[in-house]
Amino acid sequence: MDFLVLFGFIFFSVLFALLMYLASFILRYKSIVNKPESTYECGIEPEENAKIQFSPGFFSYALCFLLFEAECVLMFPFAYMTRNIDLFCISEIMIFILLLIFSLLFGVKSGLFELN
To answer: Which of these, 50, 73, 47, 60, lies nearest to 103 by C-alpha position?
Structure first.
């Protein structure tokens, strides 16, 4: 009986997905302009060339931001467990923080945050 409920759920999930796909195909906006070689295939005429070269510094800046965001996420369990903490936990988190500080200083020294 439990498998019957599971298979029914899977069946209705697939049926719902197919119905939504069919509804989107029927109710979609049909563009009058048919230019597949244009930048925007929805019919909007581009004003200028859409190919812009980005500086690699933006990507390295974004990666550094993600690194420090991950640091914030990994600090939350430590902040939650401050009630029953010992010297080993403190030493682990201090090593983690020192590694992040050294990586930040290396990024500043190597000019990672200069977006010229």
So the answer is: 60
Q: What is the DSSP string of 65-109?
A: HHHHHHHHHHHHHHHHT-SS--HHHHHHHHHHHHHHHHHHHHHHH
- Rounded to whole angstroms, the Cα distance separating 104 from 99 reads 9
Phi, psi of 93 (to 5 degrees): -70, -30
Residue whose token pair is 């049909």 = 30
The mean of the pLDDT values for the chain is 79
CB count, 10 Å around CB of 112? 16
pTM recorded for the entire structure: 0.46
Structural contact between residues 112 and 57, judged by C-beta atoms closer than 8 angstroms? yes
59-109, pLDDT tens digit by residue?
A: 877 888 888 888 778 777 777 777 777 888 888 888 988 988 888 888 888
Kindly report the backbone phi and psi dihedral angles of residue 49, in degrees, each rounded to the nearest multiple of 5, phi listed first: -65, 130
In this prediction, residue 34 carries a pLDDT of 55
Which helix (H) or strand (E) element contains residue 5? helix 2-27
- Beta carbons of 45 and 38 less than 8 angstroms apart: yes
